[in-house]
Design a protein that fits this description.
Elements (H helix, E strand, L loop, with lengths): L1 H16 L6 H11 L6 H15 L2 E2 L4 E7 L7 E7 L3 E10 L6 E8 L5 E6 L6 E4 L5 E9 L5 E11 L13 E3 L4 E2 L4 E2 L3 E4 L5 E3 L4 E9 L3 E8 L3 E11 L6 E2 L4 E5 L11 E8 L3 E3 L2 H4 L19 E4 L3 E5 L4 E5 L4 E8 L2 E5 L5 E4 L4 E2 L6 E3 L6 E3 L8 E4 L6 E7 L2 E5 L5 E5 L6 E2 L2
Parallel strand pairs: 1-3
Antiparallel strand pairs: 2-9, 2-25, 3-8, 4-7, 4-9, 5-6, 5-8, 10-13, 11-12, 13-20, 14-19, 15-16, 15-18, 16-17, 17-19, 17-20, 20-21, 22-25, 22-28, 23-24, 25-26, 26-27, 29-32, 29-35, 30-31, 32-33, 33-34
Helix pairs in contact: 1-2
Length: 435
């Protein structure tokens, strides 16, 4: 009842303000404050989960897809660290179940040289899609977090995408035969672009929306065209057989600018387009990442997604990758975990202390069968978490043995005859271990 009343107060504040500004996550925090909920244990755990997701993300390599479960009773956020080259965009797409009752916040962070995360992009309130194009390469963290008090199942797809259309019709990066930085004239200069080979007369296309800034003929480039795009890049097309636009023409990505040829200093080579990318004050930029289409099909889901949301325990000792990035941790048999995500062959699990790790479903077993029995005196508290400062969830009501379901950090998870569960410190009276 208390949680329901808190949720109602949050919604009343939001409804009174209308739609949220672009940074929906921060606006939601402000709404919590105005609803009088800031500082409550539930909100503090929600905010702590948001910070942990950015500080201790899981490294992923797009194309990536994960099905995740966010439990209403335990505030949760997921962080995904992705390396993005300059010229690429990060695309995040969510599919939600249920689709119409849960708000999920999408935010992207970058760490500066001091390691402090900096917010660089956010999806608007209600959006299930975010595309972010960084001005420079680096590792960025996508944070996914739902509103408080809402259980939701989320399918997240992460992709890298080229930010320019390919400039030669019916070709892709496989047609590039000479890369940026290759030696020219016996090492006296470097290649400031890429060469895309295609038959003479193949259409040469605008790689972005923009304005034709120059149409010319030069000794090196032959028939050339310069296009100024909306990112303030200058796109250079050389060795054309024909030019089909004029200076000042406004074009859209995919419009035909000219035809492939071998004019200028390319007269002795097969027809190709020399494509260059420049930015004022910086000079030539390697255009390959701007043009190369990364794969878009994530590995198939082979992990058993029926574990999502369930508590389980390890049936064997194992060493697996946990958080933060690429850290390998030893997990002992009977360690209690909750399954929150499934991607590829891996399950993402949360340990009772909040840490995340990746496991295989074959390493898990249900909690139903007790692994030991533990006798405790009547009135002994069963804690909500395996920690000394955890509040009691229930207490022992009758002096009979409790079933031990799993362990973590010097504590045992036990279940009484009435079905009540909670954590107790190891070392209690009468522990009888079964083989």
């Amino acid at each position: 009842a208390a949680l329901g009343a808190a949720c109602a107060r949050i919604e009343a504040v939001l409804d009174g303000e209308g739609s949220l500004p672009p940074n929906a996550h921060e606006a939601y925090v402000q709404a919590l404050q105005r609803a009088g909920l800031d500082g409550t244990p539930l909100v503090e755990r929600w905010r702590a989960a948001a910070e942990t997701a950015v500080r201790e993300p899981v490294a992923v390599d797009p194309p990536f897809q994960e099905i995740s479960f966010y439990p209403a009773e335990e505030p949760t956020a997921m962080g995904y660290a992705v390396a993005i080259e300059r010229g690429q965009a990060l695309r995040a797409v969510l599919a939600l179940e249920p689709t119409d009752t849960v708000g999920v916040f999408l935010d992207v962070f970058e760490r500066d040289v001091s390691g402090v995360p900096r917010l660089v992009a956010s999806a608007p309130e209600g959006a299930t899609y975010l595309e972010f194009e960084p001005p420079r390469g680096g590792t960025f963290v996508l944070r996914v977090q739902p509103e408080l008090l809402r259980s939701v199942r989320v399918r997240l797809t992460l992709l890298r995408a080229a930010t320019l259309a390919f400039p030669v019709s019916d070709r892709d990066a496989d047609a590039i035969r000479s890369r940026f930085g290759d030696s020219r004239e016996g090492g006296r200069r470097r290649h400031h672009g890429v060469d895309i080979f295609a038959p003479r007369g193949t259409p040469v296309l605008a790689a972005a929306d923009g304005v034709v800034s120059r149409v010319d003929s030069t000794r090196l480039g032959g028939l050339v065209i310069w296009l100024r795009d909306e990112r303030r890049h200058s796109l250079y097309y050389a060795h054309l057989d024909r030019q089909l636009v004029r200076r000042g023409d406004r074009v859209r990505a995919g419009d035909t600018l000219g035809l492939v040829g071998n004019t200028g200093n390319a007269r002795t080579t097969p027809p190709h387009l020399h494509f260059g990318l420049y930015r004022r004050g910086e000079g030539p930029i390697d255009p390959y990442a701007f043009l190369h289409r990364p794969p878009t099909r994530p590995p198939p889901l082979r992990a058993d997604s029926s574990w999502l949301g369930r508590w389980a325990r390890l049936r064997i000792d194992t060493r697996r990758v946990g958080s933060p990035l690429a850290e390998t941790t030893r997990f002992e048999r009977h360690t209690v975990v909750r399954v929150l995500g499934a991607a590829g062959r891996e399950l993402r699990v949360r340990l009772p202390d909040g840490a995340l790790a990746s496991l295989r479903d074959a390493e898990l077993e249900p909690l139903q069968r007790p692994i030991a029995e533990l006798a405790l005196p009547e009135g002994a508290p069963l804690l909500a978490r395996p920690a000394l400062d955890a509040p009691p969830r229930a207490e022992v009501t009758e002096p009979r043995a409790l079933a031990v379901l799993g362990r973590f950090g010097g504590y045992s998870l036990v279940r009484g005859a009435s079905g009540a569960e909670g954590w107790v410190a190891d070392g209690g009276q009468g522990a009888v271990f079964r083989p």
